[in-house]
Amino acid sequence: CYCSDMKKTRAPIIIALALAALPLAAREDAAAGAGKRSDWLAASARRVSELSARAVPAEEIGDWGQVIDATLFLVCRRAEIYRGRLVPLVVDAPAVIVELFSDGTFAISTAALDYIDERVFEEAGPSPRRMKSLDAEREALLAPFVAIEAARYALDLGYASFARGGPQSVGETHEADRLATLILAAAGYQLDLTGFFTQLSTEWRPSPSEGATRFSAYLPNAPSPRSRADLLAREKEGLVSLSDEVRAALSALRSGRVSAETVDSLRALGDVFPGSRWAARLEAMALHARWLATAPRQSRPLETFLPLGAESAPRAQAIFPTY
After folding, report:
1. What is the pLDDT of residues 200-240, one digit of tens each?
2. DSSP labels for 264-305?
3. For the chain, first and last CA: distance in Å?
């Protein structure tokens, strides 16, 4: 009908007028930002292609494949970091490489896996029987690496570094470490990143002139692993409290019983990590669940736009599995 056609015609006109009302500088900044992000995505795709050329066949990594899959699932899925397709990529390289890309590719080098296996057998000591489970021991040592990359993804640090043409800053590294602590807790791990960084301190060199190690490309010159551990130790009490709130919020989202306190907890997470897409995503899910609980019947068709918070949604069990 005429009214329907008018609505269809007016919509793009209104959008165009709204865009035209923006200051010219703001529109230029938005266009430049979109261009830079496209460039970053292209650079990331080239990096994935480069690493894929050195991919190790699945049959050659043995049980490591299952360990990587399980760890990625817990960190990225259970903690609600990433819902797209995850693609593990083991790269044959003498240097430690651990990278999570925006397309869901998780690259890790054979050097990183060798380091983890060395740690497993060192901690087992003279009696391998002290190991409860090789896979569980591997997962416990792999999880911090994955959580740190997941935190960088959640904070969009890869793009931030690319956009300014420089490495990750000291402040960004510390922020990612703090967020990684929460992600590990949200994923169900009882792990301490302080110990993780303390162990890595033996592999760190403050400058290239002091020689290279397999971790030289992975660990920045600053901050040192020791300073990263010290910072987390100083903030442990606050991080533990915030971790408990995040775990409770995720539990509420899985059950569909989201309270005002749940929303407040996730807003507090966003206040602590203002650049975190993870915090924004969780808050959006919580707000939707709250709306859904009180929405009038005529509004129910809107449920299909954001069904994640609905216990009765068709994909609810796939999205929030019961553990």
Report:
1. 988 887 766 555 678 888 887 778 999 999 999 999 999 99
2. HHHHHHHHHSTT-HHHHHHHHHHHHHHHHHH--GGGGGGGGG
3. 52
